[in-house]
Amino acid sequence: MNNDDQLRIKISIADRIYPLTVSYSQEEALRSASKKIDTMIHQFEENYAVRDKQDVLAMCALQFASQTEQTTIDTSEGYNKALDRLLKLDEAIERILNK
Length: 99
Description:
Elements lengths: L5 E8 L2 E8 H24 L5 H45 L2
Antiparallel strand pairs: 1-2
Helix pairs in contact: 1-2
């Protein structure tokens, strides 16, 4: 990726500014992610006794990581169920063709 394909942006997370150089295709996702993080920070601060921003950021990281893991688990389970159904269909077709 050359410099013509990159964009300099500033992302705000937990009242801190982070300058980044990203591809144009990444900009929207990064801005959306920073907004979600700030929303989650605000929710944690409103609902729990939070001592400092690091605690809140750790909880945000845990929540995002657990969502990713759950999606992986759900996808894997769905894949395994679909594969099992396809194998059963294949066996049924094989039985019909061998009659």
